[in-house]
Design goal:
four-stranded antiparallel sheet, 9 helices, binds protoporphyrin IX containing FE
């Protein structure tokens, strides 16, 4: 398929920036989106649109709904909706700073910048805990099957739903555990990335084993570590042909099914949670026809 925002299928870049925007009440989001379309192609910036924006435009995107929040047995998973999300991708942090300003200006008639999170690739694609992230990601045709809307309609095919959560790690806590216990929390060996067959049920890869769901719950993950001067963690990003797979994975992680929560929660917690619809592209520009914008 040629109408997918190319950044979705590409490997994670060396540097990234996540921008979230809120609507300016009474603003002009259509002019802003036209400006955004003029300067982005879906490659160097993947764009997602939130439910509040779609609603203001008086349109619906079937399948786009509120992010599920949870509060069970000491586990809090917040929902923090935003109108628009940009995942800036690149190799030069300075260039990402300049692109942030360019996008902010382009959107100025309708949107206000809410948050900027700087992210980066760590070594070969590790989470800051030192574990390889993305090993069981679907690839090629399977990535498209899991991550991209197909066979629905001309206006929606090539689009994608993305779940985004900013997680804050407590690395001091994680590193205080012996290596064997760390491996049991993830369900893989840090030293060689081998999966532990006898890992506890709470191990992250046991909770999220995509083939163990009915139907199978494959998502296309593109998460990246982030850090500020005082905090760090992972920006979890999962693209899907719908939000269904993400939701069943998160539900099992939370412990809502069987009372066993994912061991990840022992050292990390999500502080945001949002869904966005990532439009397809046409002639290297965002295709907004589903929103009545030609
Ligand atoms: C701080 C948060 C998280 C961290 C540090 C993390 C880290 C990891 C690591 C190290 C792996 C093993 C290697 C791999 O296959 O990628 C993994 C697997 C996976 N994670 Fe996460 N993850 C996080 C959050 C999530 C969330 C919120 C979900 C979905 C709701 C999720 C879904 C998955 C899936 C589907 C797999 C592959 C499981 C399989 O089929 O074997 N992860 N994660």
């Amino acid at each position: 398929m040629i109408n997918i925002q190319p950044g979705i299928l590409s490997a994670v870049p060396a540097h990234a920036r996540y921008l979230t925007f809120s609507l300016i009440p009474g603003g002009d989001p259509v002019t802003a989106l036209l400006e955004l379309r003029r300067i982005t192609s879906g490659k160097e910036a993947v764009i997602g649109l939130g439910a509040s924006l779609i609603e203001v435009l008086d349109k619906t995107i079937p399948g786009l709904h509120d992010f599920p929040s949870y509060s069970h047995a000491g586990i809090d998973i917040p929902a923090t909706p935003f109108a628009l999300w940009c995942w800036l991708r690149g190799s030069d942090r300075g260039e990402l700073v300049h692109r942030t300003h360019q996008i902010q200006q382009a959107l100025a008639t309708g949107f206000r910048l809410n948050d900027v999170t700087d992210a980066f690739k760590y070594q070969s694609g590790l989470d800051l805990t030192g574990y390889e992230d993305g090993t069981e990601n679907p690839e090629g045709v399977k990535a498209i099957q899991a991550g991209i809307v197909q066979g629905v309609s001309e206006k929606l095919d090539g689009s994608s739903f993305v779940a985004v959560q900013k997680w804050i790690h407590d690395l001091n806590s994680f590193e205080s555990y012996p290596l064997e216990e760390q491996d049991n929390m993830i369900g893989r060996r840090k030293l060689d990335n081998e999966e532990l067959e006898d890992a506890p049920k709470s191990a992250h890869v046991k909770r999220t084993a995509q083939e163990d769901f009915d139907p199978e719950a494959f998502v296309l993950r593109r998460s990246m570590p982030w850090a500020s001067s005082t905090q760090e963690g992972l920006v979890f990003v999962a693209f899907g042909k719908s939000t269904d797979a993400f939701e069943v994975l998160l539900n099992r992680m939370s412990g809502a099914e069987d009372g066993i929560h994912d061991a990840l929660f022992r050292f990390t917690r999500p502080v945001t949670g949002s869904y966005f619809w990532c439009p397809p592209v046409h002639n290297n520009r965002l295709d907004l026809t589903a929103l009545g914008i030609d």
